[in-house]
Amino acid sequence: MEHGLATAVLCVVGGGMAAQVLAARLRIPAIVILLALGFLVGPVLGLLHPTHDFGPNLRPLIGLAVAIVVFEGGLALDFRELRASGEGVLRLTAFALPINFVLGTLAAHLIGGMLWGPASVFGAILVVTGPTVILPLLRHARLERRSAAFLKWEAIVNDPVGAILTAVVIEMLVGVPRAAGEDPATALMLHLAEGVLVAGALGVGSALLVAWAFRRDLIPETLKTPVLLALALIAYVVPNLLMNEAGLIGATVFGIALANRHVPGLAELRRFKESLVVLLVSCLFVVLTADLDLAVLGKLSAPILGLTAAILFVVRPAAIWLATLRSDLSRRERLFVGWIGPRGIVAAAVAGLAGPRLSEAGYAGGDLIQPTVFSVIVATVLAHGFSLGPLARRFGLSTAADTQRLAVVGASPWASDMVIALHRAGVPVVIIDIYPGAMLAARDAGVPTLQAELLSRSAEEGMADHPPDHLLAATRDELYNALVCTRLAPEIGRERVYQVAPSENHLLHADTGVSRDARGKVFGDADASFDALAGRHEAGWRFLVAGPDAVEQPDCIHLLAIKADGSLEFFSVDHEENEVGEGDRVLILQAPSGTEIDADDRPAMLFA
What we know:
Strand content: 5-15%
Shape: elongated
Mean pLDDT: 82
Distance between the termini: 55 Å
Strand order of the largest sheet: 3-2-1-4-5-6
Structural class: alpha/beta
Largest sheet: 6 strands, parallel
Number of helices: 23
Number of strands: 10
Radius of gyration: 27 Å
Helix content: 55-70%
Oligomer: single chain
């Protein structure tokens, strides 16, 4: 038993994270590899039997993990985003959901051949669009802000609502406890109101308590994340004692309420929970897929496959189109949102709970719900995951490009000329400064600009329209540059944030200098400080993007390589030498004609 459980944990945790890393390298939806891995180690090879290995605790553990997932999703919902998305979010969350439910139920009955009871449960489960799937897809596809807000709010708000709708339908089918002589409809409404009100009050109350305690420094920093996780689980478990799945409302409301209290320091805690959710989602998908029964999978008949196709091509597009009639959504936005609707972990988890409960209550076809829902999950993830980016670009709803985007902070004359050279070379670049006059030259050249303090909330919102892959802090203030890099490193990537070299080289000393955790990587050579670059620029040096043979030129300094695949590689004393291949281009700072560069002025690291 011990070895069996250890094997199960190894397959779930180790395999799940390996699948995430592989998906990131291949730039494909991680759920595709996770589902394949779960199917391989479960039904195919028999290495993992979750129901047997974890016993009766499996379903409660899945519920607790889903609670943390929806809580973290709620933390991403800031009401200020509603200003950018207009009435579209209301249409998708209030109007499209009941239409999806009705159309999904009809499709399950008429096409899938399910009885009305199981068909209504199936329709309720599939009103959700999984945030665990859609949010990573949005980060990769770089949708423009309005369309991204539509899909994000729909996924996170509809997830608990769909779970509650499923619970209500099941309660109606199997009955709810009621007093003698009490009307069934009245008993159901009281039961529902009790669960929803307690869940909402507990979620909001927990958020107010956290905001009050955090702002008065009543909780040590090391305990803040554990406290949040504990409260999220409490907000999930307590309402569930009153009504099945009501806890998902409590956990989601807690996250949303907390996100809109704007508690200082919450961003750092949110990043930790995002990492935890990636681990949980990876494990959940492997466990739920591995728990499928080959005998039940064999029941995936032609009607069920037809039902899956109907959900993809008829039910959701029709529901979104009807819900957004006469709205402020454009035709392209309606078509795009109507197509994109991948289902995720909440649909899978609820299906695993609903099917057995219906079967126990004597409803024929209850055992078909889980495999049919998984069929829809796989189909939507594959179809929507691989088409989201290309379709968004086709409709003009994406800010993405094949070339990686660079954000430059500080619009000094030399930095402005540098971004203009990159812009003319086709590199997506945005320049950021608090002074509009400083960015005039870049703006006149067509370079996107952002007038904002980068560490402010307005800059964070503005950066959402131009999400960078790399950042260069190029102001005169070395400490500010380090602060910017430290603040944005967790979001962009620690190896992708750079700052101009400090004026005192000893600050880069491995032992006595500024720690790498407290600054960005150095842009170029250790001697290429702000003043050094500004001095060369004033002396007539100019930025150019040249071919790979530029690395052999003696009268220039090499700063950045634009690879043939669109990726960017920086010269830096903080990493190993890079190679320039055929088809690559190089950003250089070239001396005026007739100027010779002393050996001491040349970069210490050159492309090999």
